[in-house]
Amino acid sequence: MADYPEFSVTADLVVLTVRDAALQVLLVRRGVEPYRGAWALPGGFVHADEDLDAAAVRELHEETGLTAPGGHLEQLASYGTPDRDPRGRVVTVAYLALLPDLPTPVAGSDAAGAAWVTLPVAELAFDHARILADGVERARAKLEYTPLATAFCPPEFTISELRAVYETVWGARLDPRNFHRKVTSTPGFVEPVGRSVTAERGRPAQLFRRGPARVLHPPMLRPGS
Amino acid sequence: MADYPEFSVTADLVVLTVRDAALQVLLVRRGVEPYRGAWALPGGFVHADEDLDAAAVRELHEETGLTAPGGHLEQLASYGTPDRDPRGRVVTVAYLALLPDLPTPVAGSDAAGAAWVTLPVAELAFDHARILADGVERARAKLEYTPLATAFCPPEFTISELRAVYETVWGARLDPRNFHRKVTSTPGFVEPVGRSVTAERGRPAQLFRRGPARVLHPPMLRPGS
DNA sequence: CCCTTTTTCGTCACCATGACGATAAGCGCC
DNA sequence: GGCGCTTATCGTCATGGTGACGAAAAAGGG
Q1: Angle, to 10 degrees, between the axis of helix B176-185 and the axis of helix B159-170?
Q2: 0.85 exceeded by the pTM?
Q3: In chain B, what residues touch A9 (CB-CB under 8 Å)?
Q4: Which residue ranges of chain A lie beneath pLDDT 70?
Q5: Residue of A6, A58, A131, A220 best to disrupt the B interface, most CBs of B under 10 A
C-alpha cells in the first residue's frame, strides 16, 4: 500500500501586536536559501524530543526574548503542501501569538534582523502570506467571542486602550459609550483595579485588569454584520 | 543548534454523524500493534507527494467508501507529543468530517472492522480520546454560528430533522416554534424546496435545502449560556 | 367524528444593542 | 479663576432578536 515518507516538522509563529494604532506582525529576514533576504514568519524545526506546543514557546522565546506573560499562544493550523518548501517535505504547525506592545526590543534575538511590520505585508517567503492571513482572520474572529483583546494590553489598562485594540484589529470605529457599557456589563471580561490614570488629555480613566471569563456572553460583534 | 529529526505524518479523521437520535463517530478496530484490538480513529500515513487535505479525503474515502457529497471536511488540529506513538515520532494532523446518516454500510472499507459508535466512547488508542473530544467540541461550537448542521442532513430535509440534529449534538431540547422561526428567518440558512412530506404522524412538513450562507447572522446560540 | 400528533403562525415581555444627549473631570491658556 | 477643549462615564430611547407560550392547520387512527 502506502510508503511511509519522512517529514521535517517546523513550528512557525504568527506573532501579532498593536503598536502605534496599527496591527503589526513579527517578521524575520531569512539569512539562508531558499528565499534568502525575504521576510518570513519566525519559527524553526521541532526538536527530536520536543512537544509541538513546547517548540512554539521556545521559538517565541528565541525570537522575542520573552515568555509572553499575559500574552496568548494557541495552535493555528498545519500546512503541508508537497512543494511548499523546495528543500523537501516539510509540514509546518503554525501558532498564533497575541502580545502586548512591549517596550522590550527584539534585540538579543536569534534571527538576523527581526522586526515589527505593519499590516498588510507585501510579500513573504514560502506560503507564509497564507498563514499570516489565516492568523489575522483567527484573531479578528476571536475578539468577538473571547476576551482575548486583553492579551494585546498591559496587565492594567483603560477601557479606551481596550477599545483602541478592537478598532485597530477590526479596522473599524466603535462608539466609546456603547463600548464602555458593553465591556463593563459583560460578566468576567474586566475587573476594576480601583485606581485611575490621567492620559495626556481628557478626564482620567479608571484602570482595569483582565477578568476570569474565557468566553464572552454575549459576544462583542463586529459592526456591519 | 538544533538537530532536524525525521517525523512520520498521519491524517486521522473524526467522522461524526447523527443516527438513531444519537451522535455517532466512525471508529476502526486496530489489527496490528500497538493497541491491537483497541478502537481508534480512522486514518493513515500521508503519502510522499500528497497534500494534507488530499490525504484526509483519501482516508475518508477508503474508510467510508464515500466522497462525502453534501458533507463537510475541515482541518481540526495537530498532535505531536513525543511519546504519543511508541513506534517513533509521529505527528497527526486531525480532520473533522460531518456526514449525513447514509444508508451506505461501512463495508468495502479498508480497515478490519469499521463501525459507528455512539458517544461517549469508553477507551481509544493513542491520544485519540483527546482528539475526539476536540472534534466534538468543535462541531458543537460550529453549529452555533455556521449552517453546518445541514451537513448532517440529506439534501432535502424538514425543519424538524434539522432541529433533531441540533438537539442530538448539543444534548438539549429546543422549542420547535422558536427554532422554526429562527431557521426560516436567518438569511441564507435554508431555502424552501416547494414540496412537502408527511411523516408517520402529524401535519406534513415542508422540505428545505441548504442555503448559500456560510455563517449565521445572528448566530444560533446554545441554551443555558 | 373526535383525538392525537406535528407543523406553522402569532403574541407578549424582556434584554441587548445602536444612536445619541448630557454630565463629569482633567488640562492648557488667557 | 474662568473658559474652552478633550476624554470618560452615565442615561435615554427606539429597535430587533429571543424565550415562553397560545392557537390554528393538517395529517392519521380509533
Answers
A1: 110
A2: yes
A3: 7, 9, 80, 91
A4: 1-3, 68, 103-112
A5: A6
Q: Give strand ranges (E) for chain A.
A: 8-19, 22-29, 39-40, 43-45, 72-79, 90-98, 114-118, 156-157, 190-197, 205-210
Residue A32, chain B, CB below 8 Å: the answer is no
- Tell me, yes or no, if A45 comes closer than 8 A to chain B by beta carbon: yes
CB atoms within 10 A of CB A168: 19
pLDDT single digits (tens) B151-190? 999 999 999 999 999 999 999 999 999 999 999 999 999 9
Q: In B127-139, which positions are buried (b, 16+ CB within 10 angstroms) versus exposed (e)?
A: bbbebbebbbebb
Cell 524575520 belongs to A28
**What pLDDT does residue A64 have?**
75
> Whole-angstrom Cα distance, residue A199 to residue A160?
10
Cα Rg, chain A, nearest whole Å: 19
Average pLDDT over every residue of B16-33: 92
User: Contacts of residue B77 in chain A, CB cutoff 8 Å?
Assistant: 75
Q: What is the pLDDT of residues B103-120, one digit of tens each?
A: 665 555 555 578 899 999
